[in-house]
Batch of 2 targets.
Target 1
Amino acid sequence: MYDAEGYKNAIVTGAARGIGKSIALKLAASGFNVVVSDILLEEAENTAKELEGLGVKSMAIKTDVSHQPDVENLIKTTVQQWGSVDFLVNNAGVTRDNLSIRMKEEEWDMVLNINLKGTFLCSQAAAKEMMKRRFGRIVNMASVSGILGTPGQANYASSKAGVIALTKSMARELGKRNITVNAIAPGFILTEMTEKLPDKVKEDYVANIPLNRPGTPEDIAEVVHFLVSPSASYITGIVINVSGGLLI
């Protein structure tokens, strides 16, 4: 990738498992050093060991992305240990589903704080380091829910719509420093969370997907890999819909 230029250090939040882990594995397989950032420290450490088996440097850092001191520690530790933060993938996120009229304030706050505020805090802290080297790639995890809206997910859809707006704003602000900021909007992706859904619910989702299958974490990892590659150096401020045609 960018190794000859000295750009090879990546942070992936929410990388202990699921989509985040797939992203981390894909980047490590391409020679990136990867910080596994997650609130689940033991699982993050296991993932980091797996990445080291691919011949790169990796370390696990426990991070609550909605807590600014945690985010500052994440960036500071990465710079102290490896010298720079070159790539940031803001993948950490949660859901707390409920109908709008029944949604509790804490359900709203938790989802907005982690999904949107967390993306902002991590991007802000990483961008300050990227600006020093006049290079950086930031990839944010949005969702088709942030474009379409989803019943029972007013908090989640709002947070992801916010991520899209944040992506476009930061792309305009940081472009002159050779920092790109893009987003991915996944559709129905098979993860530990979605696999627990009743079969009928999963069948209904797939029935609305033109490609007639759910996505996989690897489908998302491939797009992240492209966005941090030299092939995407002239792409910024966009949202790539990875939904099998669910959103056309």
Target 2
Amino acid sequence: MVNDKPLNGKVALVTGASRGIGRSIAMILAKKGASIAVNYPFEAELDNAKQTVDMVKDLGVNAMVTEADVSCLESCDAMISDVVSELGGLDVLVNNAGITVDKLLLRMSGDDWEKVISVNLTGCFNCTKSALRTLMKSKGRIINISSVIGIMGNPGQANYAASKAGIIALTKSTAKEMGSRGITCNAIAPGFIETPMTDALTDDVKSDYLSRIPLRRFGTSDDIGNLVAFLAGPDGSYINGATITVDGGLT
């Protein structure tokens, strides 16, 4: 008989889970039985984070909100402590939090660069470092959300591309360091996924992307969430150090 709750009894922390891809990941992990910690970055996102928690609880599992600035290691330390205290442990860490500040390199300021690197890449490092000792006890899973932009680059997104490429390298190194401790670490590189972030793009940009995708359609947040759930579950136990593209064939 197929087990439709393979994550029953597990605890998952999803950063940037107040909306978009993060919310979908949280919902799908909850459907698989996991208790969910919903991270949000600042007060303006609190209502969205609470809405995600309510949606998760409606699925019959426990959930909590946890505010943390992932670019700050101390904030991440406090978040992990709160999750373990309230939900009883940590088995799955999904590093999903990310931002964009798009500008051509000639016009990109140092602050534009640092802001994206600090949230996307340093944030991934901070959350991973803060969670490692707890994940060693549970022989847990780390799943990092990168991007196809980190593989192929993109005009106007040098900072974003660098941050997402860095996540892929961080994933490979973490997998090699922590595999002997029973922890797996993998990256997912989404292509063009319909989210509030991509909704802001112009029709011309969307049309250009669509013309380059062999499947001739954009992905959904659930496409990412389903893969996260697979990697977090028993069927993904021997996948380690991989970067899996979910892009309809774009790359």
